[in-house]
Fold each of these.
Amino acid sequence: MRIVLLGCPGAGKGTQARILCQKYGLTHIATGDLLRAEIENKTEVGLKVADYLKKGMLVPDEVVIGIAAKKLDEAAKGWLLDGFPRTLQQAHALDEYLSKHGQKIERVVYIAMNESEVIARLTTRRSCGKCGQVYNVNTRPPKVEGKCDACGGDLVQREDDSDATVRKRLMVYEDLTQPLVAYYRNEHDFHQVDGARSPEDVTEQIAGVLDGVKS
Ligand SMILES: [Zn+2]
């Protein structure tokens, strides 16, 4: 089974990816994590990547693809791509790589939410300054307002989750992703699920899509 998972900020893509990989025995390929690991291990590629990031540049497509390709080849039972491809160019390069290696993407799943849903979900998020536990003032409030249930630390709103930052992140995301979504919608077996529902419900929607794939 070979799956590409797309999702807007706040859609819970990482959580769904972990659940699905466990359920279907897939290798979780999250390029963000892979890049971080290369940097931490100070590999040749990692040093290059660190240099791009230090200069505030995007990591070039061929570097990201090179890192992902190593993982794709190792994942005999199938894989789920999370956070990659991020751009239309990466999607083209991935298809080219896969067809050369006799593989293809079987399903593309897009966890979609509209802008007001994303903003409502992310700007109500709070996290513990001490242990990092995440809360939501609407859907997962702490027992005592402003205090962490686990350690009693003060809950804070991350800079990332402020209204202005969320809107900016969404704009950047839309610019990069719309062409990617359009490409997959036209060229691949593309399925959109409703990310505004509960995590359990989203898992169920995706499982409905994946259960049709022969492994
Ligand atoms: Zn805490």
Amino acid sequence: MTIGLIGAGHIGSQVARLAVKAGHDVVLSNSRDPQTLAGLVKELGPRARAGTPDDAAKAGDLVVVTVPLKNYREVPVAPLAGKVVIDTNNYYPERDGHISELDDESTTTSELLQAHLPTSKVVKAFNHIQAAHLTTDGLPAGSPNRRALVIAGDDAQAKATVTTLLDRFGFDVVDAGPLREGWRIQRDTPGYGPRRNAGEVRHDLAIAKRYRDM
Ligand SMILES: NC(=O)c1ccc[n+]([C@@H]2O[C@H](COP(=O)([O-])OP(=O)(O)OC[C@H]3O[C@@H](n4cnc5c(N)ncnc54)[C@H](OP(=O)(O)O)[C@@H]3O)[C@@H](O)[C@H]2O)c1
């Protein structure tokens, strides 16, 4: 499988490392000339190349969007039609500016990306793990107390694809439900950040509170 990355910063570069290690090809992109990714491409080896966001979107069988949320509208739409798109993004008003639908909690970050990509199958993943831990916390399937990552999405097949990928990357997976339930793992919820196994993260999701109820 080829994994396209739109964004190659803290999270994008780490997902690319996991993908290459798992035997996938990667096409990396950022907001600048692909040449700026030469160092990372060299580190990743022959399975990696850099291109524009359009190149990454076209080449990817699955594409990861991992840019600052404020830039989500710049993600190319047409080449992602019909594809599984992983959304890692979180909302930080101090970085992203205020987005009224998130401030009033009438939607969630991944629903915003899904609305921007109406023909793609958006799955929320990787939003609650620090980038550095992606390459240190993975364990083989069946390991006791394996770290679990949360997904959310509206398409069961897309979620199954992402579950298989995360398992190969070293993590158990807990399904929080449809995209609209993604708030349960947003910034400031109990599961956001710490290392949790599947049972613990299910508990975190169950006790999560909306900002308006905090
Ligand atoms: N850091 C973490 O530990 C962490 C953990 C979980 C989730 N997240 C979330 O994941 C997202 C990415 O975080 P990050 O820490 O990886 O950010 P980051 O290190 O700042 O990297 C952002 C990447 O997105 C690229 N980018 C920005 N605008 C773009 C555009 N319009 N088209 C294509 N690429 C674009 C940047 O390229 P340039 O360098 O060329 O600008 C850069 O490669 C954020 O929403 C963040 O909240 C972060």
